[in-house]
Automatic annotation (TrEMBL):
Residues of the signal peptide: none
Tree of life domain: Bacteria
Name this protein carries in UniProt: Amino acid ABC transporter substrate-binding protein, PAAT family
Coiled coil residues, start to end: none
One of the GO biological process terms: amino acid transport
Similarity comment: Belongs to the bacterial solute-binding protein 3 family.
Domain Solute-binding protein family 3/N-terminal, residue spans: 86-314
Keywords: Signal, Transport
InterPro entries linked to this entry: Bact_solute-bind_prot3, Solute-binding_3/MltF_N
Amino acid sequence: MTMVRGGGVSGGRAGRIGARARAHCAERFAGPGFGTRGRSSGRGRPLRRAVAAGLLAAAFALTGPGAEGPRAARADALTEIGARGMLRLGYREDAPPFSYLDDSKRPSGLAVELCQAAAPGVARAAGLPEGQPIEWVPVTAATRFEALTEGRIDLLCGPTTQSLQRRETMDFSIPYFVDGAGIVFRKGGAERLADLTDDPVGVLNGTTTETLARKVLAEVAPGAQLVIFDSHVKGLEALQRGEIEAYLGDQSILLYQLGRLRPTVQPVIARRTLSREPYALAMRRGEAGLRLAVDRELSRIYASGAIWDMIGDALGKVQISPEIEAIYEVVTIPE
């Protein structure tokens, strides 16, 4: 167990990026990936701002108080947390830089830090004093949602894509990051999915990227064989050994893992992503009180600019695209 702690504040940078992000946002969202750069003229800026707000509000709308649907008769999460005197947070051990075990065997990553920073506010909402201990519960990509629905965790702190299909069975906070499904190819082999005629292609079990991989391969490389892995590390190591020709996963995670693994032969990294993956903190469906408490804390973190220190600590010296910068300004909820 560990005690909650907050994040730092860097408000100046948040103000500086806001105007630039809005100016770039509309035209960049029309592209297939987040890695592109460019400068736009001042013409049409009000329209771009309006379009940007509309597009990013769509991501926020996924987390709004929509139809809750029926729930099994049980106490809500805040009541359970108050009675237990402890918040249970689920984390992944293998999804850096968002959720993983660090060298000291402690939960780390951007999603973990956000959950930890939100914990005091959740404790207050549950009628508990600040400083209550947190129980960190390890989950995998395959077991994380079951842990939520069965009540083993109150909040899922990891790179979880919010989608309409998932909204049918769980709730989400406002977004905290946007990634995209990327591809790495074995060096010396095919460098396009369409060229993988009958080759093995790897993907992580239980992810939206697995669903996407099945769809895309069926369309462009129907002879390719999909190989399922239970961790990104195992998939990338299989790629290094030549057991698969390509591996798909969320791009930020793939790049971070490759940096840690330092393969002797660098794979070929596709420049464009196949999807957009809005990450959010997940909870059981119908948890309006918990969602409000979490969104209040995330909004405070975004508005203060503390999110930039947290991103820097988790992702290192990475250049954030204007689209991602704009999200923190648009989805922040005022009091």
